[in-house]
Design goal:
Layout lengths: L1 E5 L6 H12 L2 E4 H11 L2 H11 L6 H13 L7 E4 L5 H13 L6 E6 L2 H10 L1 E3 L5 E2 L13 E2 L6 H15 L1 H8 L3 E5 L4 H13 L1
Parallel strand pairs: 1-3, 1-4, 2-3, 4-8
Antiparallel strand pairs: 5-6, 5-7
Helix pairs in contact: 1-9, 2-3, 6-7
Bound molecules: BIS(adenosine)-5'-pentaphosphate.
Length: 208
Amino acid sequence: MNIVLLGAPGAGKGTQAQKLVEEFGLAHISTGDLLRAAVKAQSELGVQAKTYMDAGKLVPDQLVINLVKERLDADDARAGFILDGFPRNTAQAVTLDSELAAMKRNLDAALLVDVNPDVIVKRLSSRRTCRSCGYTAPGGVDVCPRCGGEMYQRDDDKPETIQKRLDVYQTQTAPLIEYYRGHSILKEVDGDRPVDEVYADVRALLTK
Ligand code: AP5
C-alpha cells in the first residue's frame, strides 16, 4: 500500500497515519517530522527550513524533495509507505510521480481528510506534540502516551501562524485534490468525527 495523505493543517493526517502504521506496518514519511528533526539537530537543512516553518510558509521544494527521495529509498519503505505532508504543491506532486515511475512503483491512493477550518483552528491551538517521537494529542496531555517523552506546543501552532498555514494550504495544496481526482486515485473521508470513526472509514476505503 503506497498512500498520500492530503488535508489542511490539523485535519488529522498524522493521527490517522499513526493508526495505519500500527495496523499495517507501513513506513510513515512525514515531511513535517523530518524537517522538525533537522531543526532540532541544527543541521544546515534545519537552519534553512526553520525560517519558513516559523512563518507558516512552505519550505523550498528542492530541500523537501531531497528528504523524501532519501526516505523512499530506505528499506522500511519497500513494503509500503504513507506520505504525510508531501506533496504540498503541484511541482512536488509531479516530481513524486516521476520518482516513483523511475522506481517502478505507484501510488494506490491519495486520501483526503476533510475538516472545516473553524474546527482546525481549535484543534491546532490546543495540540501538543511529543519532543521525542512526534506523537500528537489534544491539549492536557503532558507526557507522551507512546514513549514517555515531553509534550510541547509547536511554534507554528500559535494563532497567527495557523491562519497563514491555512491560507498556504488553500492556495498551494488544495489544488492537489483535483490533481489526484484526475489520476482516479482520490478517496475522501469526513475528518470531523471521533478519531476511531474516521479511522474505520479510512481503513474501509484503503482495503476494499
Ligand atoms: P506539517 O508538520 O506537515 O504540518 P501540517 O500539514 O500543517 O499538519 P499538522 O501536523 O499540523 O496536522 P495533521 O493533519 O497531521 O493533524 P494531527 O493529526 O496532528 O508541516 C509543518 C511545516 O513544515 C509546514 O508549515 C511547512 O513549513 C513545512 N513543510 C512540511 N512539509 C512540507 C512540504 N512537503 N513542502 C514544503 N514545506 C513543508 O491533528 C491535529 C490535532 O487534532 C491533534 O491534537 C490531534 O490529537 C487532534 N485530532 C486529530 N484527529 C482528530 C479528530 N478526528 N477529532 C478530534 N481531534 C482530532
